[in-house]
Amino acid sequence: MGDPSGATSHAGLEHPGAALFEPQPPGRTFLNAAYMTPKPKRALAAMHACVDRLASPDFGAVEFFEPLERVRALLARVVGGPAESYSLVGAASYGMATVAWNLRCQADALVGARRRIVGVDGQFPSNVQTWRRLADAGFELVLVANGDGVEERLLAEMDDGAALLAIAPLSWTNGCRLDVARLCGAAREAGALSLLDVTQSVGVDPAIPMERCDIVTGAGYKWLLGPYGTGFLRLSPELQERLEPLEANWKNFAGSQDFNRLTDYADDFASPAAKFDQGESSAFVRLAGWEPGLQTLVDLGEGAIAAHVARLHAAVREALDGARFDVSPSNAAIQASHLFRVAPRDAADFDPLSEQLAAAGVGVSRRDGGWRLSPHVYNGGEDVARFVAALSGDRQRA
Questions:
Q1: Phi first, then psi: what are they for 226, rounded to 5°?
Q2: In this predicted model, what pLDDT tens digit does every residue of 269-298 receive, in sequence order?
Q3: Nearest CA-CA partner of 95 in 118, 126, 74
Q4: Is pTM beyond 0.90 here?
Q5: What CA–CA distance (Å, rounded) separates 184 from 179?
Q6: CA dihedral for 101, 105, 108, 110, sign (positive or negative)
């Protein structure tokens, strides 16, 4: 049982990235990286410098292209796989929309007679609403119940014939994992495509075997330390060839770096990755911030980040009174450590305790009758102590 006073040792819980981020305002604790991360100091400085340039926006032609290639290379180092597999988009939903458009327009070639898309009830809305809109093209969306046995239910639905398995490696509300290797492998055996929304995994969770999946998409403004409006779509080489992009953006075609010959109207794309880049993907301020954000992750190392947040997760479990609170298990096989849930065992306590957390300046997300915690390297033992103290009503310690 934890210490109901909220006391917790800070030993071993020093934040390894504290010097890389601006300190939180006095009286504020931010344990909500799954909502949006604070950006590293050097990313903020780069964005401020880029904003200053907008007073006289003399961006050269190379500045429309070279930053994209540097970001692709960094994504390859952080997420894995070859740089040429990464297209730059503004949101994970853009990647999903690209797939949905192709299912609508060339379903026979891609998935044959199968018209079923399989996912999990309760997954993030973008990974549901995108597929619901294909109903008028004859597609059925099947969402299996979450919880115990969810993987067996997904496998059974794929055995019945599916066009697409569209899931996330873990729950966005509580961090419970799915066996991605098993599920994506089964989808391939069943002749279905597989899509992973890795928004809540990449940059912090080394356990995701994304190479088993055909399509990977994710947002950049959470664990990838990018500004809002950053993201990626990663396609297998086969799908880069077979799929069509949503846009015929000028910059995505061969020869577009020569601004004097843009009206030559090339037929070929500049590269397989550029083919699927979203329009205005060179957005200068966003890329100026995302590149140093990704470099920060490279410098820190995903393993070190994962180890630190696992220690913070364990500290929360140890400090809280198990008779009053249910905390996600510290079992890496079934539960992520960087995103986990704390809930009062008495549901009537949720609203008043949520008010106590807000009054104490503790930033967490309210999800399904509990609090979703998602610490990062800028958090340390003192943040755990303030969270626990706020729940105990100890305003002085909080």
A1: -100, 170
A2: 999 999 999 999 999 999 999 999 999 999
A3: 126
A4: yes
A5: 9
A6: negative
